[in-house]
Amino acid sequence: MRPATSLLPVPLAPELSLHLVDGPVGLFDLTGGEFHSDQPPPFWAFVWAGGQALARYLLDHPGEVAGRRVHDVATGSGIAAIAAARCGAAAVQASDIDPAAVAAAHRNAAANGLALSDLVGSPEVVLAGDVFYSPAVAPQMTSLLRAARRDGAEVLVGDPGRGYFPERLFDLVTEYDVPVPAALEETESLRTGVWRMRSSRN
């Protein structure tokens, strides 16, 4: 069952609007307070700090993605992908292990008069927001992003200090104080970095 959402402006990027849960609701409030391994929680029903930071950075620096093929991995609500499309990317693909997230990203793109699509050819830019949130997921994401970097893609990551971020592989580009729902993060603002992955040869 899909959570009830409203079309709302993104706090750090109000040029864009997403279908989001409205009100003081946490992630696991939408799953009856339980985690079910066969059904991912609806991460896509929220706009997370890392994605917001990436979106803000791209909207302010459209040359990072304009005319380039972009892949937003672990897209969630699709905010980074949608920002890339708004900035004139040649094509933008949003992927996620949860099919509901990919559907949400396409629905949110349409709400902004934009479209996402599968890439033809390798991505030139890879985006990842808030992907280092657990000790199980972080190594997988690190391997995926390092492989993309080795293949020549620019890799930009938004991370609010989740604890499993491999900072040694990145250079800080900029930081934002990102408004977030207190029910989700137990605070109303998170200092969030946009990071560029260094060149990798191994």
Description:
There is one protein chain. The chain has 202 residues and is an alpha/beta fold. It starts with 5 loop residues before the first strand and ends in a 5-residue tail after the last strand. It has helices at residues 49-60, 79-86, 99-111, 137-150, 182-185; strands at residues 6-9, 17-20, 69-73, 91-94, 125-129, 154-159, 170-179, 189-197. The strands form two sheets. It has a six-stranded mixed sheet with strand order 4-3-5-6-8-7, with helices on both faces. A two-stranded antiparallel sheet has the order 1-2. Helix 2 links the parallel strand 3 (69-73) and strand 4 (91-94).
Features:
202 residues, Rossmann fold, six-stranded mixed beta sheet, two-stranded antiparallel sheet, 8 strands
